[in-house]
Amino acid sequence: MPPCSFTKTSKHSAHLLWHIDEPEEVLLRDSELNTLAQTTYKEIVHPRKRREWLAARLALKHLLAQLGHKYTALQKDTWGRPYLANSSLHLSIAHCSPFAFAAVDQQHAIGIDIQLPCEKLQHVKEKFLNHEEIKNSGNDLEKLCIYWCAKEAVYKAHGGRNLSLKQDISISAFKKRERGIVWAEIGPKLFVVHYNFYEGHVLAWSRGAGVKMLVQRG
């Protein structure tokens, strides 16, 4: 089916949300995987995870077409971030059934995430939130999910090697809204994270905003 949303977030960036309703064979055909990607695909055991993995790449392919860019081989840099061969575009992909999510930026490293609020987050929150973040989230599953997605998005934007969601990424206290912004820090680096709700899911996208001492928060 066509993408459920295409959003131009700035002059240099955009993201696309895709509803996954195609059978796996259609996703596989339309994704046009190269040899390396085919090998990775065949290693995914669970059928749902295979469909999500394929759909995320198909969402990226459609997003690039919307922006007039060519989809080339998807690779990963030394930080674990995906990139396109022979392209200077920054990109990020994510998925949470039944959605696949893709974003690109012409100037800044970016990270995105999508998640459905669930009780599991309450059970594992001490693994990814510090004391103040746990206090601020309370028993609000939606707010807890915003924290999770924000940290995942920042993790991807920064590059995730040897980075702890709990110890290295801190999120300033915020009030939950249908659509909003939270601020994250990794040492001296400051990240802005936009989020919104879509059919119960939390979508988050992040990019670096600069160094803390040099940036005034709005």
Question: Care to describe what's here?
Answer:
- The chain has helices at about 25-30, 35-40, 45-65, 120-130, 130-135, 140-160, and strands at about 5-10, 15-20, 75, 80-85, 90-95, 100-105, 110-115, 170, 180-185, 190-200, 200-210.
- The chain is of the alpha+beta class and about 220 residues long.
- It has 2 domains: about 5-105, 4'-phosphopantetheinyl transferase domain (Ribosomal Protein L22, Chain A); about 115-210, Ribosomal Protein L22, Chain A (Alpha-Beta Complex), CATH 3.90.470.20.
- α1 (about 25-30) crosses α3 (about 45-65) and α4 (about 120-130) packs across α6.
- It is globular, with a radius of gyration of 17 Å.
Helix-strand category: alpha+beta
Give the H and E element order.
EEHHHEEEEEHHHEEEE
Mean pLDDT: 91
Indicate the radius of gyration in whole angstroms.
17 Å
List keywords for this structure.
11 strands; Ribosomal Protein L22, Chain A; 218 residues; five-stranded antiparallel β-sheet; 2 domains; alpha+beta; four-stranded antiparallel β-sheet
Please outline what is shown here:
Helix 1 crosses helix 3 (47-66) and helix 4 packs across helix 6. With 218 residues, the protein is α+β, with helices and mostly antiparallel strands.
Q: How do the helices and strands line up, and which of them pair or pack?
A:
Layout: E1 5-8, E2 13-19, H1 24-31, H2 35-42, H3 47-66, E3 74-76, E4 82-84, E5 90-96, E6 99-105, E7 110-115, H4 119-128, H5 131-137, H6 141-158, E8 170-171, E9 179-186, E10 189-198, E11 201-211
Helix pairs in contact: 1-3, 4-6
